[in-house]
Write a structure and sequence with these properties.
- By secondary structure, this protein is of the alpha/beta class.
- It has a single domain, classed as sialyltransferase cstii, chain A (Alpha-Beta Complex).
- The chain contains 5 helices and 10 strands.
- Strands 5-4-3-2-1-6-8 form a 7-stranded parallel β-sheet, sandwiched between helices. It has a 3-stranded antiparallel β-sheet with strand order 7-9-10, with no helix packed on it.
Length: 220
């Protein structure tokens, strides 16, 4: 189940139609999922997640051209998806021009002011851009034609006081914004006919005794 490098971005449309696509973030819950779990799955990874996890096959989606260039250079055999312009916090990265990088049109980067109901693109070839690359990653999974999207590691909080899985660089974590927007982004995708769920790596919602702290909830 290799991933191909199409001639242009339009080649991704419905490339995995009817499949379950796994969207992988950087939350510390990933420390409780063996890497081989993803071996036979279609995975779309946020930013540097795929290379940090050392997965074999994966798509990468990032707002950050610098991250995209790093992944594309390390894995020239795999597709990397970016907005036409860098939409990170600093908006100053060099353009991403590697041959395995594909540029998609998006709306403007509104950060915490992003409202999925108001700002969702009406052009079917445009990907949504929200305050985290995760939102564009989810939308790209839907663009691939996913029947079901399963999100992994979008914790929106800390697990055992850690925000990211081991080995991943810790960046800004505006959990309150992410938690507020994530469900609304999922609802927009669900409205198009794709189901959206998340993976709990533990046997139940009690998290097997692990401590979770989010903006509005504490477990254990």
């Amino acid at each position: 189940m290799g991933l191909t490098l199409p001639a242009d971005r339009y080649g991704f449309k419905d490339a995995h139609k009817g499949e379950t696509v796994w969207v992988i973030g950087s939350g510390s819950s990933l420390d409780y999922i063996p890497r081989e779990f993803f071996a036979d799955k279609t995975c779309v990874c946020v930013n540097l997640v795929g290379t940090t996890l050392q997965l074999d096959r994966f798509y990468t989606v990032s707002h950050y051209h610098a991250d995209a260039i790093e992944v594309a250079t390390m894995r020239p055999d795999l597709p990397v998806i970016v907005p036409e312009n860098d939409l990170g916090s600093y908006l100053a990265a060099a353009p991403a021009t590697e041959p395995n990088i594909y540029h998609f049109p998006t709306g403007p980067q509104l950060f915490g002011a992003f409202d999925p109901l108001r700002d969702w693109p009406t052009d079917p070839e445009q990907l949504v851009v929200g305050p985290t690359s995760l939102h564009m990653t989810m939308h790209f999974a839907a663009y691939l034609g996913a029947a079901h999207i399963v999100i992994v590691g979008a914790d929106c909080g800390t697990l055992d006081d850690r925000s990211n899985f081991a080995g991943y660089s810790i960046g800004d974590n505006p959990f309150q914004v992410w938690q507020r927007v994530l469900g609304m982004v999922a609802d927009q995708i669900r409205a198009s006919g794709t189901s959206v769920h998340s993976l709990n790596p533990f046997v139940n919602f009690a998290l097997e005794g692990h401590k979770f702290q989010g903006p509005t909830v504490t477990i254990n």
